[in-house]
Amino acid sequence: MAQLVAGVDCSTSATKVVLVDVDSGAVVASGRAPHRVHTATGRRRRGGTASETEPAEWAAALRVALAGAGKAGDVAAIAVGAQQHGLVVLGSGGAPLRPAVLWNDTRSAAESAALVDDFGAEWWAETAGSVPVPSFTVTTWAWLRSVEAEVADATAAVRLPHDWLTETLCGRGVTDRGDASGTGWWSTPEGRYLHEVLDHPAVGLDPGLLPEVLGPSEAAGVVTEEAAATYGLPPGALVGPGTGDNMGAALGLGLAPGEAVISLGTSGTVYTTALDPAADPSGVVAGFADATGLFLPLACTLNATVALDRVAGWVGLDREAAAGDSGTVVVVPFLEGERTPNLPGAMGTITGLTLDTTSGQLLRSAYEGVVVSLLDALERVGGGSADGPLVLIGGGARGATWREVVARLSGRPVVVPAAEELVALGAAAQAAALLTDEPPDAVARRWGTKEGVVLDPVERDLEALERHHAVRHGLLELYRS
Question: 284 and 401 share a domain?
Fold first, then answer.
């Protein structure tokens, strides 16, 4: 009988589960369940956008997703990947004291700026690995202490989303170095909690309230009797340390050092696995740890498929109806501001229009504008050799035009893996490693998760790149003047 493991991906709006054959890597069953995100602008006496979810909804969604997969009782090991950066605060009895604050909650902007000013961007980059932005857990905790002091005072444990779900499975408060590296109070290069940050007056957090940081192949524990009854899992099944979603996807690909990834979702992400930690005081590159013992320098853009779809709606075209070239038009798709480059107040720009410009050319230029942002971010990250393959993932990777534009503007081979649910697959590989004593990334490589469509390199469209960069240079001068 095949030995099965479960990999979980608890994303912002849904929890997905894959059940995988340990030997072959075949996904034999899967399940999915949504959970609600509560958003509001300027909520709780402070500006910014609130984004929260009740942790109980994650547990309920995991239960439904496992039931939907239908074979939970056969699972020998399980691990959880989940959205990074969120804040879950628990009381003395172990129950959440309030809804979890999610990664896309921006109410801690003032706390973020103050912490960066107090320590200095250079210190953050060199010591923590990343310069914290409002999504980082440390800034959210500082915000909570400021506006809900009674909740902060009653807090007996602080967890990330994946930590909390892991604890519901095995009863132990643990995390991993990958997800810990996105908190702001754990050092990527030094592998330790940063007492300098925890002791800061705005943070004031007892390290005893934080989870133990496990290594990539350490078991968090086993499924408890209570969890077995709740989730339909076998009591005593092994529980992996889990990790954050970006680390989970990299693990799910079995990414080797120097291989570069572009992820096309609502926002865009670029990253690579590296032997050494990154340190970027500009804050563009986040110097995360990965889920294998190495490092995951990463940069994020705010405008990817959401911006493209918006432009397609404006011109009344299907997203695949772009012209073969963009003519003279340049679309700079900073519709939600932008993070790379760091221009939160920026807006979208369209220039180079003529009487001959077609709707299809405008749509094509919107694709180019998104991809130029991602390739610029990848250059900052250091995505391998200039002619090495790019691994293209995310919902946009299924689109023919996205693939073609990435190939033409990069001039590099493009690999589009056939595997889906890479975060859950990474968690499954971590769970399998507990059973086989292999490194978890070796498990993913053995499963062949990166195999898929390969686009051969084509001649790079330097004219389009130069046109977009010339317009962007002018806009940067304008915004910064």
Answer: yes
CA gap 406, 455 in Å, rounded: 10
Question: Domain check: are 315 and 230 in the same one?
Answer: no
Look at residues 212, 241, 270 and tell me which one is the last residue of a structural domain. Answer: 241
* Domain co-membership, 220 together with 265: no
| Beta-strand runs (E) in 150-222 | 157-159, 174-176, 186-187, 192-193, 212-214, 221-222
Q: Length of the chain in residues, anyone?
A: 481
- Structural domain boundaries, residue 175: 4-241
SS3 sequence of 409-455: HHCCCEEEECCCCHHHHHHHHHHHHHHHCCCHHHHHHHHCCCCEEEE
Same domain, 29 and 153: yes
In this structure, the number of other CB atoms found within 10 A of the CB of residue 26 comes to 11
Three-state secondary structure call for residue 158: strand
Is 283 inside a domain boundary?
Answer: yes
Total domains in the chain come to: 2
pLDDT beyond 60 at 466: yes
In terms of Cα–Cα distance, which of 86, 89, 88 is closest to 154? 89
Q: Which among 442, 432, 461, 449 has a CA at the least distance from the CA of 240?
A: 432
Collapsing DSSP to helix, strand or coil, 196 comes out as: helix
- Is 271 within the bounds of a domain? yes
CATH number of the domain residue 331 falls in: 3.30.420.40
Dump pLDDT digits (tens) for 202-216. 999 999 999 999 999
Residues 93 and 209 both lie in one domain: yes
- The pLDDT tens digits for 274-319 are 999 999 999 899 999 999 999 999 999 889 999 999 999 999 999 9
**Cα 437 from Cα 431, distance rounded (Å):** 10
Confirm if 124 and 64 have CB atoms less than 8 A apart: no
Distance of CA 473 to the CA centre of its chain: 28
Distance CA 250, CA 409 (A): 23
User: What is the pLDDT, as a whole number, of residue 47?
Assistant: 65
Residue 197 near residue 188, CB atoms below 8 Å? no
**Shared-domain flag, residues 162 and 88:** yes
Q: Which residue(s) pair with 8 in the sheet?
A: 17, 80
Q: What is the pLDDT of residues 316-330, one digit of tens each?
A: 999 999 999 999 999
- Asked if residue 438 is part of any domain, the answer here is no
**Boundary (domain end) residue, out of 241, 268, 297:** 241
List, for residues 237-286, the tens digit of each pLDDT value. 999 999 999 999 999 999 999 899 999 998 899 999 999 999 999 989 99
Residues taking part in catalysis: 245
Q: Are residues 271 and 236 in the same domain?
A: no
Q: Which two tokens stand for residue 331?
A: 């679309």
Among 142-156, 216-230, 258-272, the range scoring the smallest mean pLDDT is 258-272
List, for residues 378-413, the tens digit of each pLDDT value.
999 987 677 789 999 999 999 999 999 999 999 999
**Does 428 fall in a domain?**
no
